[in-house]
Write a structure and sequence with these properties.
Layout lengths: L1 H29 L6 H25 L5 H16 L2 H13 L5 H20 L7 H7 L1 H9 L16 H7 L9 H22 L4 H12 L2 H9 L3 H20 L4 H14 L5 H19 L3 H33 L18 H12 L8 H6 L11 H15 L5 H20 L5 H6 L1 H15 L9 H23 L2 H6 L1 H10 L4 H10 L7 E4 L11 E2 L6 H8 L5 H10 L4 E5 H11 L6 H13 L2 E4 L4 E5 L4
Helix pairs in contact: 1-2, 1-3, 1-9, 2-3, 2-8, 2-13, 5-10, 9-10, 9-11, 9-12, 10-21, 10-22, 11-22, 12-13, 12-14, 13-15, 14-19, 18-21, 19-21
């Protein structure tokens, strides 16, 4: 197992070097001098993410998004980094040698480094996160197979913007297991630490270190990093986008505006939900700047920088809008159905999708929940009751700070908390993911309050470390209680069992990959939606695409008609996971046929030749050919 981990880490390092190399080339081209170490390092890395993303989109436009071409793009980035990284390290050492650190700050920095290392270690656990298997990595795998940003049939989740998913997902060309991609998501999520440190650093190094420590110890973020959730990467993009937008407004140079546009573009190009925090950050930062600098010249400069940012954001978002419009005549499919409409999406599906994504509306919940909705995310989980109370009080205290950075951090965090609380008034895992950046900013503001100002000057650092330690204890307890982390990292049998437990059709997938022909065969997968693991062509309807199945098997159609319809679509086999089928049918109305229709469907399936059965409710059938 150790050799496997070392191999994954080595590939991740090479991929990061490719990002770093491409980003360094861009910085050289625009003659940028970012300043501090973290500003310099992250600007190269995120600019490299942006360049890789645009390269992959360009390859897809000419239908050349294949493993060899992706490997060439990555190799160029690695070679570029080899010619730059030595000078970068020398400059970083020279920059660091001129700074004096107190012993307490060195200990805090060392502890933060240990926590980051632990997060990367737990990210080596097996890939079991549902979203990665159903669309975040499934879509890039299909793009690699077809060579372009192809439409994934009957999977509405893959129609969301997938910028960072595409950029990281091309690592499937190096590691088809997805473990490399999962680790890369966790690495990009760790950039949150650098973002928080840079954002709070003007308030003092101790304040910035404690702010970073508070973010690192938040319990829910450990589970997200372990699973490889993409949202912490997006939160890092938003924070650095905010930092660079502030620099762009305060500086006559236009390079920070480019970095800000790339960061905001990667965020909004990866999740539509990022538009809320991007808009709030831009509006609040612009307001703060214009209030301080009241002149027509400053207003014109702010507008110019804003236009640069807006153009880059549009550039990063456009491929997904164009892709959706070309297939459905709706650029934001499946959203805004009342305005654009789409042939494959019904009002019932739209309502179900919205309910799953945003939950009940504000007017549909009791009065007590309405009152708590703006701040409910802070108290939505049992381990967050104490932490949430401290964070709320700390962020409110930051509003009274004389330091502009602390006030701005708290204002953006509180604004995001309230706005998202009103949009999705019931707290839960989905809201935590959509609004992770607000929680990050509130945690940072709380840590900064304890690390600066006149608040308990002799005891504040000890109090902050004690609170962070308590939070870290909850984090480890919740993590091990939710996932068998230690067992799956140290026991190969437990690791395999854990992964197979989270993919009910694993044995059937293995059989299909080994015995079916990747050119001649195509599988219709019912119930099981984790199509990432299939290496032969397939149709795997998402939980929300049951009506597409109803259109085939419903109405007055007969088994002969079903056979002909599936044959026209090239389907040669039918894979059914009966436990997953029942779950989706009960929760989402998946294949919602009347009793007589379901009986006819079941009778037809039983007459099909059985190719494989795993003994746990998953079967593979061959369709009869004429």
């Amino acid at each position: 197992m150790l050799s496997e981990y070392i191999g994954t880490l080595a590939l991740a390092l090479l991929y990061c070097l490719a990002m770093f190399g491409w980003g360094s080339l861009l910085l050289t081209l625009i003659r940028s001098n970012p300043g501090s170490f973290w500003n310099d390092f992250v600007s190269r890395l995120l600019a490299g993410c942006g360049v890789l993303y645009l390269c992959f989109v360009g390859l897809s436009a000419v239908a050349r998004l294949h493993r060899i071409e992706v490997g060439i793009v990555l190799a160029v980035g690695v070679l570029a980094s080899c010619g730059i990284i030595i000078d970068f390290i020398k400059n970083s050492i020279a920059r660091g040698s001129s700074e004096r650190w107190m012993l307490a700050d060195k200990l805090l920095a060392a502890f933060i480094g240990i926590l980051i290392g632990l997060q990367l270690i737990v990210a080596l656990t097996p890939l079991v996160f549902y979203d990665l298997q159903v669309y975040h990595l499934l879509a890039p795998a299909e793009f690699l197979r077809t060579g372009s940003l192809t439409q994934v049939p009957w999977n509405v989740l893959t129609n969301s913007p997938l910028a960072i998913q595409l950029t990281v997902g091309m690592s499937l060309a190096l590691d088809a297991s997805g473990q490399l991609a999962k680790l890369l998501f966790a690495m990009l999520g760790c950039l949150l630490c650098a973002g928080v440190f840079e954002l709070i650093r003007p308030a003092g190094r101790r304040a910035a270190l404690l702010a970073t420590l508070f973010v690192l110890c938040f319990p829910a973020f450990w589970i997200m990093q372990t699973l490889g959730v993409v949202d912490l990467s997006i939160a890092a993009f938003l924070i650095f986008g905010t930092i660079w937008f502030r620099q762009a407004l305060a500086d006559t140079r236009w390079q920070p505006a480019i970095f800000s546009g790339i960061s905001f573009g990667l965020a909004m190009g990866s999740r539509y939900q990022a538009v809320i925090l991007t808009s709030l950050a831009i509006v609040l930062v612009s307001t703060e700047y214009l209030v301080r600098m009241r002149s027509d010249a400053n207003l014109r400069r702010a507008l110019t920088q804003l236009i640069v940012v807006g153009l880059l954001v549009s550039l990063f978002l456009c491929p997904w809008l164009i892709r959706n419009y070309s297939h459905f005549q709706n650029p934001v499919y499946p959203l805004m159905q009342g305005t654009w409409g789409a042939t494959e999406w019904s009002p019932e599906q739209d309502m179900q999708f919205r309910s799953e994504t945003l939950g009940p509306r504000l007017h549909e919940i009791p009065a007590t929940q309405k009152l708590l909705a703006p701040v409910m995310l802070l108290f939505g989980f049992p381990s967050n009751l104490l932490i949430g109370s401290i964070v709320l009080l700390g962020s409110l205290a930051a509003l009274a700070s004389p330091n502009r950075e602390m006030r701005l951090t708290s204002v953006i965090g509180l604004a995001g908390l309230v706005v998202w609380g009103l949009i999705r008034p019931t707290a839960g895992t989905a809201l935590l993911r959509y609004n992770a950046v607000s929680i990050v900013l509130l945690l940072a503001a709380t840590g900064a309050v304890l690390g600066s100002g006149k608040f308990l000057p002799k005891a504040r650092s000890a109090i902050a470390v004690m609170l962070a330690g308590t939070s870290f204890f909850f984090a480890m307890r919740d993590l091990q209680g939710s996932l068998p982390v230690m067992q799956s990292l140290t026991d190969p049998h437990m690791r395999l069992a854990f992964q197979e437990l989270n993919v009910p059709s694993w044995a059937a997938f293995d059989y299909a990959n080994e015995h079916l022909d990747g050119v001649r065969d195509r599988i219709l997968v019912l119930g099981e939606t984790r199509g990432l693991w299939l290496h032969v062509p397939y149709l795997a309807p998402s939980a929300f695409n049951g009506p597409q199945l109803d259109a085939i098997f419903g109405g007055n159609s007969s088994p002969d008609a079903w056979q002909k319809t599936l044959s026209r679509q090239g389907v040669t086999h039918l894979l059914i996971s009966y436990p997953e089928f029942e779950r989706l049918h009960k929760k989402y109305g998946y294949l919602n046929l009347p009793p007589a229709g379901m009986a006819s469907f079941n009778g037809w399936v039983q007459k099909l030749p059985l190719v494989f059965e795993d003994g746990r409710g998953t079967a593979l059938y061959a369709l009869k050919t004429n």
